[in-house]
Amino acid sequence: MLKKLLLLQLLLMTIFSFVQAQVSSSSISQSQLSQVKVDNLSDDQIRQIVAEMKKNNIGYDQIDQYAAQKGISTTEVDKLKARIKSLNLDTELTSGSNSGKNKLSDTTGRGNNDANQLDSAYYWQDQYKKIKAKQDYDKEMRRQRIFGTELFSNKNLTFEPNLRMATPLNYKLAANDEVVINIYGYSEIEHTLRVTPDGYIFIPNLGPVYVNGLTMEEAKTRITKQLSTIYAGIKTGNTQVQVSLGNIRSIRVVLIGEVMQPGSYTLPSLATVANALYVSGGPNENGSFREISVIRNGQSVATFDLYDFLIHGDLSNNVVLQDQDIVKVNPYKLRVELTGEVKRPAIFEGKSTETLKDIIDFAGGYTDLAYKGMVKAFRVNNRNREVLNVPEDQIGSFHLQTGDKFVVDSVIARYANRVTLSGAVYHPGEYALEQDMTIADLLKKADGVLDEALLSRGVVRRLKDDYTPALLNFNVQEVLAGKQNLKLQREDSVIIFSKLAVREEYLVKIDGEVNQPGYYPYSDSMHLEDLILLAGGLKDAASLKNVEVSRRIRTDGAFDSTDIRMAITAQFDINKDLAVDPSSAFPLHPFDEVIIRRSPSYTEQADVMLDGEVVYPGSYTINTKKERLSDLIKRAGGLRPEAYAEGSVLLRRTYTNNADSALIRSKLEIFYDKLYDSTSVEKVRNAVGRNLQLLGIQLEEVMAHPGSKYDLYLEDGDILRVPKRLQTVQIFGEVYFPKKVRFDKNYTFRDYIRGAGGFSSQSLRRRSYVVYSNGEVRSTRKVLFFNRYPRVKPGAEVYVPAKKVKEGLGPAAIVGIASAMASLALVIVTIINASK
């Protein structure tokens, strides 16, 4: 008994050690991660690592911390992240900063408080970024709705000063300006001089002249006076002096207040306030567009209002800046929002003296669909909000309050005097409802009804007092005759139906031996011959006898249970020229179907192709229905001396209809499943897919015994190929060196296999087969315990299939088997203990 227990224990240990080895071979333990090389990991092992991270709720951005705790180097971490991305597994991992429940394992044994604090920090940092981003987005969207903001985002409008224009007379010279002096007359000379930091220009042969702070007119007067001391012609008028401005200086301007990018800017000395605002990005969401101050030497010298330019195109208050000027954008004091049916809905800045009418003018006025009778206003008071209705006569006197929101509604899409006419009338459409207007009056305005109009009934769609729909009917013929006078109401819709629209389209069908078979519109008094002509006439193979017409059964509502007919059929003979013959004319009814059959004595030529080693190869027409292969060879002059009759091949067309094709496909799939060699499967599939299929023949027997069972009848499209004598054999499949070898009549099947290196370890010898050059196939047979291989002929192809690949047991199957064996062992132990 002790021996049995020891043996059983040894068996159990062997089973569980085997299972453990199998399971551990397909996964990576935690202790092995520190020495693992990412390049050596398979894709499945990468997926297991990602699955473990998902289980522990670890995000993709926490791989660095996760890998550090597992002891993986930084280089391997980068490779791991690249592998995860290449497998598109990074999307499966949640962002670590979004997960407040991530718990990084702590190998020091101190718990995971630090990890929780780190996760919390990531979480709140991410939340702050989202809130901040949303606030910035909302702020930018609100700024974009402010009227005039687009002025500073337009790349085609920069307000750059025109440096090529004539120098303004009020322009004051300062250091670094370039002064150009032209002297002409008795003396001609030009000087280009720059103003020094002390405010002087140095004129050759004259000396310094102080020009700082002088306008161009004042500078010209002073320079001319100084030059007259050395040029006598100036006093007499024979010499003239012209003073102009060359390259201008740069100035420093400071922008402060509610601007997008406040700071100090270097601008040309001809720059204006608008130019300075543009380079700074313009007013921000709190900046005023109407109160922009220019401060010079501590004093406000100008106030710029952008609305003058935006509304009227007026830049007269766009002053030229000077060095050290300060442009201050003040916060807005009054802003209102105007939406709805106006041409430019936006947020507008107003002044205390302006009214709602001014704001509507800023918006370009009302649109064509605007309701002008009243404007809705939403206002924020000290304690609550309120809604105000501003009538049209009070818009010009309604005072604004910052934060007001005005909505201009649209006119309701409802007509006060509209009626609609549609259907079989000459002029359908919408008409104005007049006093005591009737349906007859409406039809008269539309020039009456069409010829195909249904006169027995028309309808009027009407809305009742509670706006529920109602349908009224009337007799169109009586309305036109003046016997009915139904008065119309607002929004009535009158419909006159067409007889063609309320019935199924009348068609007739013709099929068979006509040039253009198909469906054709039915017409009254249409005859059989008329339909044949519409179909392009008869084909050459058409039979003039037994033309069949099938007709639907119409019982006019009467039901007879004993009537088992499905159609009425009749057969007729027609004339070849389809001449009019009143005695034999057959009128057609709607939905009749005509079939022109093929003449039973009509036969088209059938051709076959003869190719290869015959005296006269080419195309031949079959003379009789009983012409055979031997007759064809005889007509072609017989075989050539080098012809190999035993390898001849006959290709014949395949004809399968749709009903047979499904059955054939199902049988072929069963046949494919029985083929082990993939190469053979593809060859069979390709052969079946063609319209021509190989038909095995024995031409040597045909020539030896004409008219025998081997001598097949010819069919249209047959192709007979007679090759030269073949001298090779091709070997495919599970051999060590598949190749083409020379045919030797003394070689057996195994000799050819040995010539290709012999059978491989995966070969299925008992399934080997030979395909001969004429299309015949011979397979290996089993005789007692030995394989009898087929004989090999010239041009043959030898195929050695492969064994089926047996799939090994996976980890789950191994664990299941081990569990079953353990359970069996437990039962054995129980039985042994019970037998004591």
Automatic annotation (TrEMBL):
GO terms for cellular component: cell outer membrane; pore complex. Coiled coil: none annotated. Residues 1-21 form the signal peptide. It holds the Pfam family SLBB. The chain crosses the membrane at residues 809-832. GO terms for molecular function: polysaccharide transmembrane transporter activity; porin activity. It is found in: Cell outer membrane. It comes from the Bacteria. Residues 252-329 form the SLBB domain. Residues 167-244 form the Polysaccharide export protein N-terminal domain. Keywords: Cell outer membrane, Ion transport, Lipoprotein, Membrane, Palmitate, Polysaccharide transport, Porin, Signal, Sugar transport, Transmembrane, Transmembrane beta strand, Transmembrane helix, Transport. It is a multi-pass membrane protein. One of its GO terms (biological process) is monoatomic ion transport. Residues 336-376, 418-463, 508-557, 608-653, 729-771 form the Soluble ligand binding domain. Residues 94-116 are annotated as: Disordered. Belongs to the BexD/CtrA/VexA family. This is Capsule biosynthesis protein. It comes from Chitinophaga silvisoli.
